[in-house]
Amino acid sequence: MKKVLAYGSRAARAPLAPLTIERREPEAHDVEIAILYCGICHSDVHKVNNDWTNTHFPVVPGHEIVGRVASVGASATRFREGDLVAVGCFVDSCRTCPDCRAGHEMFCEKGATFTFDSFDKKRKTRTFGGYSTGIVVDERYVLSVPKTLDPARAAPLLCAGITTYSPLRQFGCKPGDRVAVVGLGGLGHLAVRFAASLGSEVTVLSTSRAKENDALRLGARQFVATQEPGAWEPLEGQFDLIVDTVSAPHDLDRESTLLRSFGTMVLVGLPPGVSRFNASALVFGNRRVAGSNIGGILETQEMLDYCGRSGILADVEVIRAERINEAYSRMQRGDVRFRFVIDAATIAA
Ligand SMILES: [Zn+2]
Ligand SMILES: [Zn+2]
User: Fold this and answer.
1) pLDDT tens digits, residue range 198-243?
2) How far is the CA of 14 from the centre of ligand 2 (A)?
3) Which of 32, 41, 65, 124 gives 20 to 30 Å between its CA and that of 319?
4) Separation of CA 120 and ligand 2 centre (Å)
5) Which residues, in sequence order, are bridge partners of residue 30?
């Protein structure tokens, strides 16, 4: 075992503070990674607050990890010392079930091992995430980061990026398609960049005008402030695809009327409670409602390679580790453009 420095929370809603955790010695197929940056995802905040009532403390969050290979196990062949690599939301799975074989490891029938606050079945330990100076991961779950990408701005691609890239690929975002992105936060701003880069005509739907300039700068053609009177009517029946990134309760039934016939509304946010849909709005028009959650290893690598070719990166605010708690408060107020990223070099005991 090797001790590494980390930032974590010892009890529900306790502020994050420095702590020391243990990482295993690299096994035959492992890659030991010196972490450079880790993005802060909303699920980190939910886990620390125990909002899903399933957090095990102490918890070290973080699943948007970029770093350099520090050493490789004797049988690891995919990476070499010094390579720029990344780790996303999961670090292991059974590898043999239909979902694993299809490249959807996150839905592994035996349960994927997630990057933090998850049980590592092989080693009977709990996993600790990327708010730390190092991590050891089986090479099969490590991704290669194109050298051309700024590592701090690439970190959010590992969760926010794949979460928005995957639905655009699954539902066939094509040049000329009219795509609506609902909500312009960590997920939404990457959805706009991806959809625009894939050639579609992007409209951003946001509650107020506050983010209009950002939306246009990111590549949107049109911006709609949904709380303004008369905002919705001109949009009815307009979109081939809607990517809804909002996690607050909102009227999904009304949103579904903005789809063209055969259009799809994909939910990637997790609003609490039950969403209601009027069947006739879906039936008359063959409209579809779908959900999408991150992506498998192959698709995540495809996304990173695509970002390498097209230059897509997140807009980030890089912070020192001692500012994590302040970053959490600002995120809960929506005060970030568009992702906080921790500089792992500032994690100190
Ligand atoms: Zn995440
Ligand atoms: Zn599996």
Assistant:
1) 999 999 999 989 999 999 999 999 999 999 999 999 999 999 999 9
2) 34
3) 32
4) 14
5) 138
Q: From the CA of 190, which ligand is nearest? A: 1
75 alpha carbon – ligand 2 mean position (Å): 22
- For residue 278, the CA-to-ligand 2 centroid distance in Å is 36
Q: Which ligand is nearest to the CA of 297?
A: 2
Ligand 2 centroid to Cα of residue 122, in Å, is 14
**pTM higher than 0.90, yes or no?**
yes
Cα distance between residue 151 and residue 146, in whole Å: 9
